[in-house]
Amino acid sequence: MAVQNRIRKVQKRDRSLVPFDQGRIYSAILRAARSVGGFGLDYLPGVNDHLFDAYGSDEAIAQFLSDIVVVVLNRDPRHWIANFPPTIEEIQDTVIHVLRSYGFVTVADAYECWRWGKHWVRAGAITLDQFVKNGYPTPFHEEILAWNRAHGCDTVEGLNEIVRSGKIKDLIEAATEVYERSLDEAAQKVLDRMNQGDEIRMIWISGPSSSGKTTTTVKLTQRLEREGLRFLMLNLDDYFWPLIEHPTDWINDRNFETPEALDIQLINRHLKMLLDGQEIEKPIYDFKKGEHTGTKRVKLEKDQILLLDCLHGFYPPLTEGIDRSLMFRIYIEASNMMYEGDGSTGRLVQFSDIRLLRRMLRDSMYRNHPPLQTLLHWHYVRAGELFSIIPLMGLADHQINGGMPFDLPVLKPYFVPDGIWPRPEDLAPYEAFLDARIRYQRVSKLFESVEGLTREQTQDHRLIPGDHLVREFIGGSTLQIPHNE
Question: What is the reported pTM?
Answer without folding.
Answer: 0.94
